[in-house]
Amino acid sequence: MQALIEIERLNLFYGSFHALKNISMDIPEKAITAFIGPSGCGKSTLLRSLNRMNDMIPGTSTHGSIKIAGADIYGKDIDVEALRKNVGMVFQQPNPFPKSIYDNVAYGPRLHGITSRHKLDEIVESSLRGAALWNEVKDHLKRSALSLSGGQQQRLCIARALAVEPDVLLMDEATSALDPISTLKIEELAQELKAKYTIVMVTHNMHQAARVSNQTVFFLNGEVVEYAETEKLFSNPQDQRTEDYISGRFG
Amino acid sequence: MSESTSASNRTLAVSGQPGNGIRIGNGRMLDRKNRLRIYNRSFRIVCVASAVFVCLILLSILFFMFRTGILTFRSVPASTFFFSTNWDPENESYGAFLFIFGTVALTALTLAISVPISLFVAVFLSEAAPRWLSNALRPVLDLLVGIPSVVYGFLGLTILIPLLRDITGRQLTDGLLAAAIVLSIMVLPTISRISDDAISAVPAKFKDASYALGATRFQTVFRVMLPSARSGILYGIILGMARAIGETMAVVMVVGNTPQLADSLFKPTSVLTSNIVMQIPNVPFDSTWNYALYLMGFLLLVISLLMIVVIRVLQKKGVKA
Ligand SMILES: Nc1ncnc2c1ncn2[C@@H]1O[C@H](COP(=O)(O)OP(=O)(O)OP(=O)(O)O)[C@@H](O)[C@H]1O
Ligand SMILES: [Mg+2]
After folding, report:
1. B79-320 is classed in which CATH architecture?
2. How many angstroms separate the alpha carbon of residue A221 from the centre of ligand 2?
3. I need a labelling partner for A88 at 20 to 30 A (CA). Which of B24, B78, B226, B239 fits?
């Protein structure tokens, strides 16, 4: 498999706090990569480095390089907005805008200049279908997105991210606020989406990582401890710390 | 009495149902039942009475203004009062249209100037300015809210009017524009601080979602932050509007106080408030002139009350959203 994201000697500081330590890894395209590790080990930080959402936090400094499809995203002439369009993100808490379902999905395309009603209708439908939500909401697209259930809201957020046609989808504990059935739906959805998208997900749920991901990265204190095929990592971890973590002995 | 008894008394009092206390003896229990009933009842009476009292004050003000104002129509046809622009009480002409128009035009002009600037200030404070700067500016704006309006009038009189004179080259610059600028400065702190609070209260997760979709800061402010803060911003605008409509002193000092229709921004004119305050000291008590001024006061009151109703409706909507 081709590597889409190449991270090389990445170091990140929050002020003087060294949050990511010398991280290098290749993330293959059209597959699901899971980040696991105890709380505070830097999973979210790394994820947010991939679409430069860390830029928004004052006092962060990033060193090293991240290449997506060959382009250094921390390079001088990178267009951060275009990068974020290309690298979508789904957050831990479902965060639809207080707008209608339609306007939520159309938000991204409109930002990037699509105004034709016909075109928008098409995008909204295909994105909602892509997020397995179309059948539930097709009759009330004008209703407020906040009237949906938590699981539906999260799928709406996925649809909203898909609407700008990204290549990469980042999911930061996207199911941790959801009930088991909604969680299952989103896991199934991720399985479908990986045919078209490169997915990187953070999860605290080891079973989830084992169920859905193709490869898994185990982090500890801002460092990569082990990176392997998911099956291999869970059945035959190379590092003692990985074994301790996945067998629930710490963290 | 033991603690549990008093606690049960309290819950009973809350539910409003005098019930059985702990039986100590028949007589005592009856005692407590009665006492509770009296407490509950008197408490309710006091509450209802206060509410009625407040309503009565409001209604009696309305009624009082109305009762005297309505007498205008004994000698002036309503169509003349509302639509004629000829206000010349010495010669029995009572056309109040120019004042009504003046008030509406002044309020509209004030909002047209103050709302965009206030929104700009609010966005600057909540989104763009470094934290130390917003922290320094917010208390300043809050202080400005409390400055007596006569001070704003003074500044208008001594700074703004001469300034307008220099800029336009006119002899007389008293009028709607001068008044609108003074009122704008006056309501600007109110509208911008309330909007600032409303924008700052928009959850960060909406901002994150917008940026993560590739929005610029500008797009995020205009497409997510401002719409999400809409009801709070409207609340600020209406508060500012209510203040502008009812403002008297600052207006009197710069509007020119001439009863003529303002067909130019620089024509000295008069509005409902300024006309009432300028003329009321000199009118005979039992004259149509006096009645007409009361009627104008009543109109002003009705307009302000309508604003308050709108505020309430908006607030309810805000809670729902
Ligand atoms: N904005 C910030 N400012 C300063 N330090 C931060 C900031 N965000 C995160 N950190 C620190 O960086 C480290 C990594 O945080 P991060 O959120 O990436 O952890 P995580 O692995 O996602 O944890 P969790 O599983 O709890 O979400 C933590 O020690 C955290 O305290
Ligand atoms: Mg995290």
Report:
1. Orthogonal Bundle (1.10)
2. 13
3. B226
